[in-house]
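Troubleshooting log. The previous structure file for this entry was overwritten by mistake, so regenerating from the original sequence record. Sequence copied from the archived sheet and checked twice against the printout by T.R.
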Amino acid sequence: MSTMKIAVTMEAGVLEKLDRLVSGKVFPYRSRAVQAAVEEKLARLSGARLAMGCAKLDKREEQAMADEGINIEEDSWPEH
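Regenerated output below.
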């Protein structure tokens, strides 16, 4: 995957923590640490959207559809 250069402004305290991670060899350099943090945040937000979508579902309706699907599958399975 290609990379692009950006400029980032952050609070001094956050940068100090970031530099401690780099000096502690947790990350090879700042850009890797920032990329990992952004990727993690994007993944969390994606998961949060999924959770919000799931919260909108009607549990009774979903259970009824699941039960209906189970009954259909049972009828189509061959006997052993």
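The helical segments are 12-23, 30-55, 59-76. Archived copy saved in two places this time.
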